[in-house]
Amino acid sequence: MKIILIKGIEGRSSAISVPTWARVAISCCLLGLPMGVGFWLGAEFSKSETHFFDQVAEALEADMAEQQQAVVDTKEVAEQRLQAMTLRLAQMQAKLSRLEALGELLTSKAELEDGEFDFSSAPALGGPSEGTYSRVSSEGETLSMLEELGFKLEDRALQLDMMAELIQDRHITRQNSPSGLPASNGWVSSNYGMRADPFNGQQAWHNGVDIAGKAGSDVLAVAAGVVTFAGDRYGYGQLVEITHENGYVTRYGHNSEIHVELGEIVNKGQVLAAMGTTGRSTGPHIHFEVYKNGRSVDPASYIRRTIR
């Protein structure tokens, strides 16, 4: 290869021969420069692209880790709630068992009719079915059981309230209605009505029932009430009179000692006096009288009566 050089205006020229090795060197320089620039630009672009994908990957990993932690936290909260509801369920089941046991005991003690208060079976339910059914989660099942137990507890509590009211009414009736024997021990030795007088043998009206027994035996109130007389009265000896509700009055005569005072409030079965033979009497006994609305009635029916 030759290189022609032109000098000046005259146009003189000269030729320079370029050796082969120089031509190769020049070609390499001319071709290598753009290729090097291309390689450099490609390398820089590759570095930027790699850095971009690394950033995207790191962001995805961070987001995934955050979601995984959220799942763990949610699971822990759900487990804690489930444990709390399970504990509450166990407590409610124990309370229900105690209520049922108490209900059965009260039913037995109160001598209620069979089936009137049944604590051994679930509350009666019913109604038309609407909608569809689906499988619920463990937490949902626990909530459903809690709701069912709550309903059972309300039902049992309502039954117990009704039973308590019924027992209270029966207790009040039992307390205020004359019934039973007015002595800790004894037997009826003379009935109400006409009889032969024990002192003269003539027919005479006996206004009460005589209950014979051991001297000093307890004389008991046959109903709750207020002591309206406590002291000596002709023919009765040491007498206790009690006024009750519903127009009843009871009298207990011939006592050896009196243990209550005028105006005292007494309960059914309370000791009023000690059996004796004071007044018009032939031996230790209680002369027991019952009045209803001011009229004398036969005490025998009240002695035999059992208030349920």
Secondary structure elements and their pairing?
Blueprint: E1 2-7, E2 12-17, H1 20-109, H2 138-176, E3 187-190, E4 193-196, E5 203-206, E6 209-212, E7 218-220, E8 225-233, E9 237-243, E10 248-258, E11 265-266, E12 271-275, E13 285-292, E14 295-297, H3 300-304
Antiparallel strand pairs: 1-2, 3-6, 4-5, 6-13, 7-12, 8-9, 8-11, 9-10, 10-12, 10-13, 13-14
Overview of this protein structure:
With 308 residues, the chain is α+β, with helices and mostly antiparallel strands. Among the domains are: 2-64; 187-304, Glucose Permease (Domain IIA) (Distorted Sandwich). It has three helices and 14 strands. The protein has helices at 20-109, 138-176, 300-304; strands spanning 2-7, 12-17, 187-190, 193-196, 203-206, 209-212, 218-220, 225-233, 237-243, 248-258, 265-266, 271-275, 285-292, 295-297. Strands 3, 6, 7, 8, 9, 10, 11, 12, 13 and 14 form a ten-stranded antiparallel sheet that branches. A hairpin with a 4-residue loop joins strand 1 and strand 2.
Rg over alpha carbons: 55 Å
Order of helices and strands: EEHHEEEEEEEEEEEEH
User: Number of helical segments?
Assistant: 3
Q: Which residues form runs of ≥5 with pLDDT under 50?
A: 132-137
Give the terminus-to-terminus CA distance.
Answer: 142 Å
Largest sheet features: 10 strands, antiparallel
Helix/strand/pairing category: alpha+beta
Portion of residues within helices:
40-55%
Mean pLDDT: 75
User: In CATH terms, what is the architecture of the domain at 187-304?
Assistant: Distorted Sandwich
CATH class of the domain at 187-304: Mainly Beta
CATH superfamily of the domain at 187-304: Glucose Permease (Domain IIA)
Number of strands: 14
List the quaternary state of the chains. Answer: single chain
Q: What is the name of the CATH topology of the domain at 187-304?
A: Glucose Permease (Domain IIA)
- Strand content of the residues, in percent? 15-25%
Shape by Cα distribution: rod-shaped
